[in-house]
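User: Quick one: structure for sequence A, then sequence B.

Assistant: Sequence A:
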Amino acid sequence: MKLDAAIDGIARAYPGPGGACAVLQRGEVLEKRTWGWANAERRIPFTPYTLFRLCSITKQFTCATLLTEFPDPSVLDAHVRDRLPALEESPPTTLHLCHNQSGLRDYWAVAMLHGSPVEAPFAAAEARRVIGGTRTLQFTPGTRYSYANQNFRLLSDILEERTGRSFGELLRRSIFERVGMHDALLAADTRAMPDATEGYEGTPQTGFRAARNRILWTGDAGLGASLEDMIAWERYIDTTRDDAESLYRRLSAPVTFADGTPAAYGFGLSRQTEYEHAFTGHGGALRGWRSHRLYVPTERLSVLVMFNHLSDAHGAAMDLLAAALGIDRPPRPALVEAPPWVGAYLEPETGLATRIDLANGQLRLRFGHSAERLDLDLGAGTAANAATRLEPTTDGVWMERLVDHQRSLLRRCDANPPADASRAAFAHNHRQLTDLPGRYRCAELNAETTVIDSGGILYGAFSGFLGEGRMEMLECVAPDVWLLPCPRALDHTPPGDWTLAFRRDPHGRVVGVTVGCWLARGLNYERID
């Protein structure tokens, strides 16, 4: 059977210290497997009862707890307002938090703008200061989607305040006891798990080492659970599938944006379609941990994948889903020549640099949280995947992002540099190495960005109340548009490349820079020296 072969091959296809997976149908386990080590140094094996850090899979449990305690979440809207005391515009509602439509900038990304070292401690006090200092939003709540972890931290904090109970106790009472998740717990402190399970960084080529995390997570990513616990959750989902008032039916109910357009994310669940089958699910990740779960209601099929290393849990889940459906994953056609509209662009609404190029035989789009692969339709001249579509025109490239609820015309910004000119030479031609270095301050964050010329190379770094971030080499994208890479961060997946769009006055003098990434954009810094 395809599923047997897929299960047998998963450990080698996604190598690392240890892991677990399961496939269920109609509430019954079709296949279940654990392998390797929960703690390789202490030779503790990975078993079905090993506690695992589920990370962002927590979000659906936070929303389930919310709906159990407060069936009408709008009664908590005033509490959301109270936790954003500096906000200068209309606040998001409780449901906006649940659906990642709040407009808040992700607080893990903003922490990097405050100069946080990658492995620094980040607990309740730091979270309150970052969240409480919010003065502006990225967009009007309800009009766009953007992932923001603090949406769910705010929910769990508000639940604790209103009920007078700890979030861990609320999870036990609302979900774990009802479902039969006997070992599940709120594992808020990311430094260690109670059973000594470790998450690992590295690859088979470089070797693996225990990942170091010092974040205190709650409703955004604090769940700890075993494979058996998650099997109990999947069984509960299937058992209650016909009850319109059941927790998972409410969590997976259709969600819309303010204009009535269907949304692909709501109540801590992603709504997707793959292999012509609609499903709900979510991934989870922290440095050293990767997981994914999904449920296909038409087939009554569940897939669970848990790695205590950095392999692609989503990819593994898609492999198992295809195998369970009896489908061969089709190979993608490889491009040998890039279309003429590859290059660097600016997205006007967010101000973010957007790059389109050819990588591994597919078009690669670098705009959002991570790079996307798109298939080129040679007949139509467009490129697309399940979430994004690109259509070139004489004025630029139309980019439609279905999940974000956004359509915009990308404007080319690389100014067609000569083919024989390197990026460094291109930058020199525009005098950028001489007039960009300096200090820039963001009044909203009370934080700074510093740009330094070191031996003819520009470097940049952020600093604020959390410390001084490390210097990174800047990459020139276009005149006055540079990228500051962030390959490691507090959270599992770093913000990626920050766009630095420098601003000039009518005399051509650099007076400021607008900084942003997809998770946290549109922050203006003014030059202070």
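Sequence B:
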Amino acid sequence: MNAEQKRLDEDARREKNWKRWGPYLSERQWGTVREDYSENGTCWDYFPHDHARSRAYRWGEDGLLGITDREGRLCFALALWNGRDPILKERLFGLTGPEGNHGEDVKECYYYLESAPTHSWMRALYKYPQSEFPYARLVEENRRRGRDDPEFELVDTGVFDDGRYFDVFTEYAKAAPDDVLIRVIVANRGPERAPLHVLPTLWFRNTWSWGRSGEGYWPRPQISREAGGALLARHAGLGRFRLEAEGNPVEPTVLFTENETNFARLFGSPNAQPYVKDAFHESVVHSRRDAVNPEETGTKAALLYVLDVPARGEVTLRLRLSSEEEAPEDAFADHDRVFADRRSETESFYATLIPSGITNEEVNVGRQAYAGLMWTKQFYHFAVKDWLEGDPSQPPPAEARKHGRDSAWTHLYNRDVISMPDKWEYPWYAAWDLAFHMIPFARLDPHFAKEQLVLLLREWYMHPNGQIPAYEFAFGDVNPPVHAWAAWRTYKMTGTRGARDRFFLARVFQKLLLNFTWWVNRKDPEGKNLFSGGFLGLDNIGVFDRSRELPTGGHLAQADGTAWIAFYCLTMLSMALELASEDPAYEDVASKFFEHFVAITDSMNTLGGTGLWDEEDGFYYDQLHADGQEVPLKLRSMVGLVPLFAVEVLEESVIAKLPGFRKRMQWFLENRRDLARHIAYMEGRSGDAHGHRLLAIPSKERLQRVLRYVFDESEFLSPHGIRALSRIYGERPYTFSVAGQEYRVAYEPGESTTGVFGGNSNWRGPVWFPVNFLLVESLERYHHYYRDELTVEFPTGSGRRMTLGKVAIELARRLSSIFLPDENGRRPCHGDDARYARDPHWKDLVLFHEHFHGETGRGIGASHQTGWTALVLRMLRDVAQARTPR
């Protein structure tokens, strides 16, 4: 057991609180729903970026590559000023949803480079221009551009030309759970000396200004200066912590203020006391020495270093944040050794996760994927009841809010560290994103993965009716039901057969029964096992906005909604069979899910003739049910591929040990032959003594017909994975007319040209990792059943035939190639930006976007959505293993 694994075990057993401190500080708290107390839910306008430096947050904090404790009480981050900017750089800047021509978008260059699972070693990079940061130009140019134009990014402004910028590396290493060493390395990449103000900042989240008491609220804490120069932070719940700074290369100036709103600046009303949140901005940028507290006390403090960084040189700052109990006498005697040890131990830990045969470039991508996964943990606090009511010491919010957004979720009380999709663009959890995050997390930190999956099923998250909260913009929205799949996969990945965590499996299974029942009761409007569900995470993929009432009236029988429930059924069946192996009480519920799956499969394939299957086209389509008619919406999209995900292979050796389930299944096969035709059976082959039963929505013939589209380069198959919409709609958009209005869907491989769901994501052509991952897994299961007896042409029309197992590897290779450099050093994810191909300070950096261009593989959408895009780790491993001789 290496040192990092030992720390993980100590933390899991609660012997040592190694994860107390981590990168749990959000990168954007402003513009979020939980900070929005407006009448009409206009969160971007209610709390804009311009307010962030002056206004105390109610529910969280944000900062630049910072850390906080797991309850978000005491925060540390950097602030920077290059001597030219109009504001102190305390947080990342980006455009709001209405400002961006493709929705909200961060306009910064920053990278997560390394992190151990316990955050005992972390490293990140921020690139800060030496010229004035182009805030106004970014807003104005993106406002000028339309949806058909590309986004205008920070690199497009020229601020990084000639290397005139600083690389600011922030590194953290833990000597003990409450002893965090900090190193800030400022590298001047330019040809001339350049000044830089660096402010390592320590502050308390404001929990005292709202007139509330009880859990999560503490009296006003205090930061003061000790005789030796260290900062002493005292908090009723956290204890006493000291921040010490080395006076090298220059002695810092200490600044103090309060984390309180500047009412005078924002609202024109008097401040209750003179020292407010934006004091450091006023002091540094506007030279207002009266803005900071001369008494050297407050709830926010900074150490101001005024640096003169040599041309192409660097300066290092060393600090240490420690509890009084763990603070050493000499804060810097062991500084370099601790950093070296933690980095080395982290290398050793990851070496155990890296398969043989993997290349150095693949290791680089994998390590940054793991780092991004770890850095996007965030302390998330939101109590909906308190938010709707407003706080006793604040003006009462509009009465209409009590009947508006999230008003049905008053039970929801969140105060946890949660894996986020992207801490700037999506600084709130999303249920289906989190499920995918846990697949790479299961290998990295199994205890955290299981905790997260349990968390969303707890009573203070899950609605009393069984619904899992979707995301803060609409907790009642509907995400694809992948939580059970993630729990089942995590269970199987975190232990060997006979030594797996059955308590975890049983625990989530019981709560998932409630969620499954909610789905069946709420999303099957006609009781015929054809399900609706709304947008189901696929945003703008449909002809209509599937989360709103249809312009035709009636409802949609959704191919993806129905297939997701079938997928859910099979996962619950697998879980029940596993639990039944030691507890026969689960055999009955296993039979229930077996029969329910078969009934859904029958409806999808045969109801009304062919169900949602179109025999002429050989594809699954949504079906519009209105005015007594059932009209297929013949749009070939990912909607019609989700039915392929619902596949499971039942082994005879497992069934033989469950007499109750076996007896019921046998009765079903003999007495419901109308349904039993959907279950394939294959005898054991030579060397494989037991038989298999295949549970799948498509028959073998229908599977082959759908796959002809999937593997056709003129349809779904791109050089970098499977597109979300067929390419044929580029030249011939799909149209549907109703009541004199034409609805149109065109293939758009890049950014969306529609405003559906804010316009910042696009399911009409790009490649998305979560659904590609599920498709690869499904092909592997089909191959497990059919083996070499089923081959397909890949690509379609090429004349080259492959087993589905080999196709899965080829898809994994294409998906991995998005992040790997070609012979010219170009990574598809970075598009045509030459810096990433040739500049030594850029070329090894990797970003993990939300989705990828359907032709080029260029990253689009959120730029740091490492959560589900970290699924590339599995692809890299599969490709490496496939090329390693056995």
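The two ends are 27 Å apart (CA to CA). Residues 412 and 460 are 5 Å apart (CA to CA).

User: Thanks, that's what I needed.
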